Amino acid sequence: MSAVRIKICGITRVEDALAAAEAGADAIGLVFYGKSPRAVSIHQARAIIAALPPFVSVVGLFVNASRCELGEILDAVQLDLLQFHGDETPEACSGYGRPYIKALRVKAGDDIAARISQYPEARGFLLDTYVEGVPGGTGQAFDWSLIPEGLQRPIILAGGLTPTNVGDAISRVRPYAVDVSGGVETSKGIKDAEKVRAFIAQCRSAE
């Protein structure tokens, strides 16, 4: 198995972005969804990105954003990858001049392979926990056995991951990447540098 990639999502402060980078994160996530307690402004986003060292990717998370809103953000903020976390159609995810990943909220009875096949241009798929009315960031894990074997697309595992369970998650699911937010926080949007280091250490130990 190749090294699992690690994304620390919901970054709101420069110091947390730097702590994630220093600990070995491959990517950070910035949330552009006003209803989220982890949402950032364009000003915050620009400051965080300017402070990052090279080779750390910046992912922008959007939930059912209009093309106008998304375009304005992309004009102002240098994002490497877009993450669509709402009910976006394949057409709504394309045409921005950036690669994208699509988040899918998983529940029993889902045909994950069929849902993945609807987004041929997506670079990967983030599998998160389904909670009615909540697009993500629930802090709850889902039943990993619901993920079918043999998926031919990169899978990013999210939902309730912590330093305690991420090693087991990697061993069982063998994802391309893992994504954590609440599992390494002291409060919503405020990361705990020690938890970030512990999370990444557990990821490396599980490889």
From TrEMBL:
Gene: trpF
N-(5'phosphoribosyl) anthranilate isomerase (PRAI) domain ranges (all copies): 6-201
Pathway named in the protein's UniProt entry: Amino-acid biosynthesis; L-tryptophan biosynthesis; L-tryptophan from chorismate: step 3/5
Broad class of enzyme this protein falls into: isomerase
EC number(s) stated in the UniProt entry for this protein: 5.3.1.24
UniProt xrefs under HAMAP family: PRAI (MF_00135)
Coiled-coil segments: none
Source species, domain of life: Bacteria
NCBIfam families reported in the protein's UniProt record: PRK01222.1-4, PRK01222.1-6
The name this protein goes by in its record: N-(5'-phosphoribosyl)anthranilate isomerase
Keywords of the record: Amino-acid biosynthesis, Aromatic amino acid biosynthesis, Isomerase, Tryptophan biosynthesis
Catalytic activity: N-(5-phospho-beta-D-ribosyl)anthranilate = 1-(2-carboxyphenylamino)-1-deoxy-D-ribulose 5-phosphate
Family named by the database record: Belongs to the TrpF family.
Pfam families: PRAI
GO MF term list: phosphoribosylanthranilate isomerase activity
